[in-house]
């Protein structure tokens, strides 16, 4: 038992002596000296501020719209009948096709009856004209022979004297004639012809429904002539001129040439853009559709300036200049903003400009070009 106690005490003594000796060796080792001469260096991308002529293309996104949009409303009352094309949304038609027809057989019959009565009225005055107005008889007999209930009324002969006018008025010729003209005009309102080649964008009534005056029947859009509406930043308007040619590219990658037709003279409050309008004439081989988006490339222009990546811009109007291994914040003038580059001015050609993005700078760091 005593031997075990002695062995334990001896072990503890040995461990204690080992710890003391290790601490002595550590303290006796000389501490490494700091190299106070070492510098903090950072390499940055740079470029000399050389002013050159840069080709500047302006590419914007435009939307196709119909050149003409018309809301069709009925001016008369009657049942809607089938015209030359189906009265359905999306149906296409050609110019002068009958797109809406209102039942008018009763009106046509009344007009024919009125023309027949008018023939009787004119026939009654012909004998008196032959006796009392011999010099006027020929034109009135020609007019009488030209009246056909199935056709439009011929033009009324020119009245050469007040005496002749009184004679015609007293025999109810003028009143009857102009009443018939009014009925002819009204009859045309029962037929609506397409003012252009296009299609129905929406249809609010069905065939067989009754139309009433003022009721909207359909909306039509033109398809052979379109417009491209392009929202443009006001600062870019100096490069865009009315009548200049531009290139549009559709979603299939097909390029076509068109022209600037007009430029709005106000800024849209919502987009803070000015709208530029391009006229587009559709062809059989290439036809854009309303609502489609296209890329619009305006003519490239040569601009004098210094081109740098957009990421190098600091606080919108500054860049970093590398001078004597330090970075200086330098104000510049933005000439043109491109997709991923900007063209700036106000930089001396001897200056070195940082062309990458830096989150922050440290005055104690030495900056070098790479």
CATH architecture of the largest domain: Beta Barrel
Number of domains: 4
Strand order of the largest sheet: 3-12-15-14-13-16
Low-confidence stretches: none
Which range does the strand content fall in?
35-45%
Helix content: 25-40%
- What class do helices, strands and sheet pairing give? alpha+beta
| Rg, alpha carbons | 45 Å
CATH-level-4 superfamily name of the largest domain? Efflux pump adaptor protein, beta barrel domain
CATH class of the largest domain: Mainly Beta
- pLDDT averaged residue by residue: 86
- Beginning-to-end CA distance, first to last residue: 78 Å
Here the CATH topology of the largest domain equals Elongation Factor Tu (Ef-tu), domain 3
- The count of β-strands is 22
The biggest sheet amounts to: 6 strands, antiparallel, barrel
> Secondary-structure element sequence?
HEEEEEEEHHHHEEEEEEEEEEEEEEE
Shape: elongated
Number of helical elements: 5
Q: What does this protein structure show overall?
A:
The chain is of the alpha+beta class and 370 residues long. It is 25% helix and 36% strand. The chain folds into 4 domains: 44-55 and 303-369, conserved putative lor/sdh protein from methanococcus maripaludis s2 fold, CATH 2.40.420; 59-65 and 223-301, Elongation Factor Tu (Ef-tu), domain 3, CATH 2.40.30; 75-104 and 190-214, no CATH class; 106-188, no CATH class. The chain has helices at residues 2-28, 105-132, 134-146, 162-170, 173-188; strands at 41-44, 46-48, 52-66, 69-73, 78-81, 92-93, 98-102, 191-193, 198-203, 210-211, 216-222, 225-232, 245-249, 255-263, 274-281, 293-309, 318-323, 326-331, 333-337, 341-345, 352-354, 366-369. The longest helix is centred in the N-terminal third of the chain and has 28 residues, at 105-132. The radius of gyration is 45 Å and the shape is elongated.
